[in-house]
Write a structure and sequence with these properties.
With about 120 residues, this protein is of the alpha+beta class. Strands 2-3-4-1-5-8-7-6 form an eight-stranded mixed sheet. A hairpin with a 2-residue loop joins strand 2 and strand 3. The protein is globular and about 40 Å long. It starts with a strand and ends with a strand.
Length: about 120
């Protein structure tokens, strides 16, 4: 499994106010989507999220988002290394993802850009 990159997950109160700062900082435009009532803006290596506190409370438990070539392969590697898959793989607006808890208790989201 090749790790292609990682995104820093940031929960913000006001997505509209935060996006211009991160667009200037990262030098790019935000890719926006919504998932489970949470508004998301992906900008460079930043993943900004805003929405209901109950949803954000769950999202704050995820350490980072890891981009991989193939989530199915990541699933196999992670389980082979003793990680526990918490959710997925499932399709998302941008590809597929899964949530995994590493043996040390850290939770990561793994994503690819493949469409199911």
């Amino acid at each position: 499994m090749e790790i292609l990159g990682a995104s820093l997950r940031i929960c913000v109160d006001d997505l509209e106010a935060a996006v211009p700062f991160y667009e200037r900082l990262a030098g790019g435009r935000a890719l926006r989507f919504e998932r489970a009532g949470v508004q998301v803006a992906a900008i460079g290596s930043f993943l900004l999220m805003s929405g209901p506190e109950a949803e954000l409370e769950i999202l704050r438990k995820v350490t980072a988002t890891i981009a991989v070539q193939d989530v199915e392969e990541a699933h196999q590697v992670l389980t082979g290394l003793g990680a526990r898959i918490l959710a997925g793989p499932v399709p998302t607006p941008a590809g597929r993802n899964l949530l995994a808890m590493h043996p040390d208790g850290a939770v990561f989201e793994y994503v690819d850009q493949q469409r199911s």
